[in-house]
Amino acid sequence: MLRDNLNEVETRVARACLRAGRSRDEVLLIAVSKTKPVEMIEEIYQEGVRDFGENHPQEIRDKFPQLPADVRWHMIGHLQTNKVKYVIERACMIHSVESIRLAEMISSAAVSHDLVMPVLVEVNMAREESKYGIMPEETESFIREIAAFPGIHVNGLMTIAPYTENAEDNRVYFRNMKKLSVDIAEKNIDNVDMCDLSMGMTGDYEIAIEEGATMVRVGTGIFGMRDYSK
Ligand SMILES: *Cc1c(COP(=O)(O)O)cnc(C)c1O
């Protein structure tokens, strides 16, 4: 059953790439496994998926030793500075950098573990009050500020688009993200590569791909609805 879900998502990703004239390998499908048990993750792993997304640092810490070492864990949710320690040696990328202090903490933890953590800057493109993220017009100066930190490497941008019944509503935000990413790339800031654009979730990943996403984060579409009551 999970395999059918995955096949369906995979087909839609491939079709969106085709529509956009993009190659399928330009887009990484991240299976968002938050709240889901290890057995379900293993099922998707068996199908060849290696990239999984979690939004709680403790969940990465706890699941990490229970899955094969070649799993790439993406930290996609809000990260408090005191929880950086749970993900620093376990995550392959942190998608949700949205404060100088957090970038600083990640950098110093990385330096003390002798590694460089790839990070994305979370942008609040739709200016939602409920959301974390840097305002679009402040993103470049934010990046200039954190780019010098030795323990991180800025790999691009991430956004969480608004919840909507109509995915087309989000196209404008994805398009503006791509524009922002290109604008910043043209500045050639040291230690900054605008190669990744993490955007699109179950409701809107096809549109995000059409607008230039290089990473889509799909949870419900692969694992089914989440149960937060437990
Ligand atoms: C939960 C989550 C997702 C996946 O959401 P779905 O709608 O289930 O695909 C993607 N990105 C972030 C940051 C999330 O927290």
Verbal overview:
The protein has helices at 2-19, 38-46, 57-63, 84-87, 100-112, 139-146, 171-185, 205-210, 220-223, and strands at 28-32, 51-54, 72-75, 91-97, 117-122, 152-158, 192-198, 215-218. It is α/β, with parallel strands linked by helices and 230 residues long. Strands 7-6-5-4-3-2-1-8 form an 8-stranded parallel sheet. The structure holds pyridoxal-5'-phosphate. Pyridoxal-5'-phosphate (PLP) is lined by residues 32, 34, 55, 76-77, 160, 201-203, 217-221.
Fold topology:
Elements: H1 2-19, E1 28-32, H2 38-46, E2 51-54, H3 57-63, E3 72-75, H4 84-87, E4 91-97, H5 100-112, E5 117-122, H6 139-146, E6 152-158, H7 171-185, E7 192-198, H8 205-210, E8 215-218, H9 220-223
Parallel strand pairs: 1-2, 1-8, 2-3, 3-4, 4-5, 5-6, 6-7
The protein binds pyridoxal-5'-phosphate.
Pyridoxal-5'-phosphate (PLP) binds next to strand 8 and helix 9.
So how many helices? 9
Mean pLDDT: 97
| Helix-and-strand structural type | alpha/beta
Q: What is the radius of gyration?
A: 17 Å
Distinct ligands: pyridoxal-5'-phosphate
Uncertain stretches of 5 or more adjacent residues: none
Residues in β-strands, percent: 15-25%
Largest sheet: 8 strands, parallel
Helix and strand string, N-terminal first?
A: HEHEHEHEHEHEHEHEH
Spatial separation of the terminal alpha carbons? 22 Å
DSSP strand tally:
8
In one word, what is the shape? globular
Percent of residues in helices comes to 25-40%
Strand order of the largest sheet: 7-6-5-4-3-2-1-8
